[in-house]
Design brief:
The protein is an alpha+beta fold. Helix content is about 20%, strand content about 25%.
């Protein structure tokens, strides 16, 4: 009887240790810097974010949270610039009044992050030691439509990228319906850091997040001649 109780106690302890371990392993991203505002007007809120992190793992944020309205009348964004365990940069974007959950950030509650000089700007491009473009994939080309009828939207995508990190796309976004009555697809053809081809596919009406693409906000990509066609069979000539 005594041994059974010990076994049950051991099982219970193992279960609680497992529950505790799950959120700990989920903390992958190391915060470098934080900005709040709009592309036109934004402020460094890294120190204030540290104070909030020490108080709560989750909080709803807005002007009152940071004690400032950097661009009155406009919807503000909190951008947290971070690195994953492999050193790749990643930007997290939170719309004003949304909830920030710090469980995915390493040492969140300790607040011992974001201490270096940040030169990355609003879009995260940096020449400093803490910087580097946000994202891993370099865009070569973009097409919108169906396999039967599709159009080159690389230039339009550059314009959209300079305006927003995320946007919802469809016919009105690109100003054309290349195949009436059919569900369209946006295909972004890119290369990873090792030069391998990677195609990203987005169904009409879905949201595009440019944080995974190098130099997204600058729009200085997609200038090479593209011979890959709809299916991305790329032949560089």
């Amino acid at each position: 009887m005594h041994s059974r109780n010990i076994l049950r106690l051991s099982t219970a302890l193992a279960f609680f240790v497992f529950l505790y371990w799950i959120p700990a392993t989920a903390q992958e991203y190391q915060i470098m810097h934080a900005e709040y505002g709009t592309e036109r007007n934004h402020v460094d809120v890294t120190q204030r974010l540290r104070e909030l992190a020490r108080a709560d793992r989750r909080f709803r944020m807005g002007n009152s949270t940071f004690g400032i309205d950097p661009d009155p009348g406009q919807i503000k964004i909190l951008r947290i610039y971070a690195r994953d365990p492999n050193g790749h940069p990643r930007m997290f974007e939170y719309r004003e009044s949304s909830v920030v959950d710090g469980s995915q950030f390493a040492a969140w509650g300790g607040g011992n992050w974001g201490g270096g000089e940040w030169r990355g700007g609003w879009h995260g491009e940096s020449g400093g030691e803490n910087g580097g473009d946000i994202g891993q994939y370099t865009i070569m080309h973009a097409e919108y439509g169906t396999e039967r009828n599709h159009v080159d939207v690389t230039h339009r995508l550059r314009e959209l990228a300079r305006a927003n990190v995320t946007f919802r796309m469809g016919n009105s976004t690109f100003g054309i319906d290349p195949d009436h009555g059919q569900i369209k697809i946006l295909r972004i053809y890119s290369r990873d850091p090792n030069g391998r081809l990677r195609m990203f596919e987005y169904r009409e009406g879905s949201t595009i997040d440019g944080a995974q693409f190098v130099g997204w906000g600058r729009g200085d990509w997609g200038n090479d001649r593209w011979n890959g066609g709809w299916n991305g069979d790329y032949d560089r000539r």
